[in-house]
């Protein structure tokens, strides 16, 4: 008779968000952030007891907030927590981070670019609180733990598991305020799926990523410079660009019109910023497609935003500026990550 296989060990880190929330009733799908209560990681696991059947779990409290209140300082602290736990528990198969969906994709991408640990890191959350009728919290939590504990998940960078899809942190974005299938990877699609009988992968994430990204060598107390996003629209002028420069921005991400164009007034202001040594990345507000390093961007000193969303381009630019201000090197980061 074969011996029973030991369950993988997975640490579950609580950051708050909807998945950690209890509303005032089973039909409270809107007011729980302000009027409900928050649970820590151990309490969440206790309420979803089915998770104990798929992994040996270590609950780790970290934050108990809506993800709209997290900062880059919190991200570096979270990264430090992951690195410390990785050293203290080398037998861990992986980590699951419970996170609010509003900025989940940004936290995931930051970790995708900065982690240097061997374990799998998975982020998940929910669109409905644990107390709600039809909550997606239990299934997302169970799926994330299964993915984190599965040996086939190793080496794929930071992952986002939601609604039975496994997404690369680089590609995934939130596309709906309330729908359960809110996280999508747009042009590139999911890496794999959480099936009832197994974790199934169909492709790998391209580009440099954890544990081998260029920014894995940054210290946990790094302080990236300020980078802001300027959103383009018909008639937009230099107001936003001048305002963020006055606040000390060292980089600007332009969320331009598709396929990466801005108004004449914006273009003039951005070119003036570049002439003063400010790094400017040209993205698009469109959720599909990429901004290539076309001639006018190259000759004007702009950095092409490729297919990064403006919010992810901001993270990549801020980390890049922590290491260098050389435009050629910054362009290389965008081309290879």
Please give the structural blueprint.
Blueprint: E1 9-16, E2 21-22, H1 32-35, E3 37-38, H2 41-47, E4 56-65, H3 72-88, E5 94-98, H4 104-114, E6 120-124, H5 137-149, E7 159-162, E8 165-168, E9 173-174, E10 183-184, E11 192-194, E12 199-201, E13 227-231, H6 239-246, E14 251-256, H7 264-275, E15 279-284, H8 295-300, E16 303-304, H9 310-323, H10 327-336
Parallel strand pairs: 1-4, 1-5, 5-6, 6-7, 13-14, 14-15, 15-16
Antiparallel strand pairs: 2-3, 7-8, 8-11, 9-10, 11-12
Helix pairs in contact: 4-9, 9-10
Structural commentary:
The chain is an alpha/beta fold and 337 residues long. The chain has two domains: 193 residues, L-asparaginase, N-terminal domain (Rossmann fold), CATH 3.40.50; 110 residues, Rossmann fold. The chain contains ten helices and 16 strands. The strands form four sheets. It has an eight-stranded mixed sheet with strand order 4-1-5-6-7-8-11-12, with helices on both faces. Strands 13-14-15-16 form a four-stranded parallel sheet, with helices on both faces. Strands 2-3 form a two-stranded antiparallel sheet. A hairpin with a 4-residue loop joins strand 11 and strand 12. Helix 4 runs parallel beside helix 9 and helix 9 packs across helix 10. The longest helix has 17 residues. The chain is globular, with a radius of gyration of 20 Å. The mean pLDDT is 95.
């Amino acid at each position: 008779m074969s011996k029973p296989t030991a369950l993988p060990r997975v640490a579950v880190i609580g950051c708050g968000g909807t998945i950690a929330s209890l509303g005032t009733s089973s039909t409270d799908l809107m007011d729980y952030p302000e009027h409900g209560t928050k649970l820590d990681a151990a309490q969440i696991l206790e309420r979803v007891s089915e998770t104990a059947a798929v992994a040996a779990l270590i609950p780790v409290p970290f934050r108990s907030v809506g993800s709209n209140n997290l900062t880059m300082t919190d991200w570096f602290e979270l990264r430090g927590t992951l690195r410390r736990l990785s050293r203290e528990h080398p037998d861990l198969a992986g980590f699951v981070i419970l996170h609010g969906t509003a900025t989940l994709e940004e936290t995931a991408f930051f970790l995708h670019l900065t982690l240097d640990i061997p374990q799998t890191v998975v982020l998940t959350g929910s669109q409905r609180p644990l107390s709600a009728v039809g909550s997606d919290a239990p299934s997302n939590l169970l799926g994330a733990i299964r993915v984190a504990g599965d040996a086939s998940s190793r080496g794929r960078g930071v992952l986002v598991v939601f609604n039975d899809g496994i997404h690369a942190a680089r590609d995934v974005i939130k596309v709906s305020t309330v729908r359960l299938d809110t996280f999508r990877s747009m042009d590139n699609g999911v890496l794999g799926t959480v099936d009832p009988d197994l974790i199934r992968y169909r492709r790998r994430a391209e580009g440099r990523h954890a544990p081998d990204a260029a920014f894995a060598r940054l210290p946990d107390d790094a302080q990236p410079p300020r980078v802001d996003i300027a959103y383009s629209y018909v008639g937009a002028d230099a107001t936003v660009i001048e305002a963020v420069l006055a606040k000390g921005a060292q980089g600007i991400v332009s969320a331009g019109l598709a396929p990466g164009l801005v108004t004449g007034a914006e273009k003039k202001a951005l070119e003036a910023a570049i002439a003063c040594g400010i790094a400017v990345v040209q993205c698009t507000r469109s959720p599909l497609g990429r901004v290539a390093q076309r001639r006018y961007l190259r000759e004007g000193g702009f950095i092409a935003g490729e297919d990064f969303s403006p919010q992810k381009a901001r993270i990549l630019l801020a980390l890049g500026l922590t290491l260098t201000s050389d435009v050629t090197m910054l362009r290389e980061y965008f081309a290879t990550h």
